[in-house]
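Retry 2 of 3 after timeout on previous attempt. Resubmitting structure tokens to design endpoint.
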């Protein structure tokens, strides 16, 4: 019988190398062996997705490959999640993700969404070209504890600041953290508009969210 480490490596490889037809069988072997389901997710499936995201950043993988990798990850998650302890199944908070108003480029947002979901967050996907009020409503009405905004257009950057200002005006700024990212975004811009954090990659976005929400080790 395969060891835990061998099965975790196989799960990671299934995601990284787009073996979406094999991953469920490997995940079931892992569960049948009685190993920790949390490790299967984070040291197996998410590890593979992190490696795929790295290849995307290096322009060795592109969107079609990344989508197949995410399919493999989700296929594995479907097998693993029912075996998580009930109090851990949805242990992280809800994050509202969206592309700032005026921008319809959502590839980066979708990658961040995949990574945050894999890490255990509940994602409210607001889509692209999101009206300012929609972000505030996600906090007021849907219980989002974090707002994650992206843009690839410098002309839409100011709308990120407008979201934060509107959150202050409507009394919900202290109810949710705000993180931002995208091609023209920088830490200096995040500081300027009063965001809680900035990330340049999807992998770093997960680390940032964990740190801000207190999920880091």
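Retry 2 succeeded. Sequence:
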């Amino acid at each position: 019988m395969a060891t835990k480490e061998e099965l975790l490596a196989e799960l990671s490889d299934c995601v990284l190398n787009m073996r979406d037809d094999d991953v469920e069988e490997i995940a079931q072997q892992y569960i049948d062996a009685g190993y920790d389901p949390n490790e299967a997710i984070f040291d197996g499936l998410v590890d593979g997705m992190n490696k795929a995201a790295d290849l995307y950043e290096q322009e060795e993988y592109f969107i079609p490959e990344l989508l197949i990798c995410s399919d493999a990850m989700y296929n594995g998650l479907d097998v693993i999640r029912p075996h998580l302890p009930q109090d851990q199944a949805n242990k992280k908070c809800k994050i509202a993700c969206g592309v700032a108003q005026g921008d319809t480029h959502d590839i980066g947002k979708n990658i961040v969404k995949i990574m945050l979901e894999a890490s255990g967050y509940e994602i409210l996907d607001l889509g692209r070209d999101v009206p300012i009020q929609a972000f505030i409503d996600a906090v007021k009405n849907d219980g989002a504890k974090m707002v994650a905004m992206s843009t690839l257009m410098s002309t839409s950057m100011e709308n990120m600041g407008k979201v934060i200002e509107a959150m202050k005006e409507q009394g919900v700024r202290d109810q949710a953290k705000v993180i931002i990212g995208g091609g023209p975004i920088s830490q200096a811009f995040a500081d300027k508009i009063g965001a809680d954090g900035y990330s340049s990659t999807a992998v770093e976005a997960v680390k940032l969210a964990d740190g801000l929400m207190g999920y880091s080790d």
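Attempt log closed. The mean pLDDT is 92.
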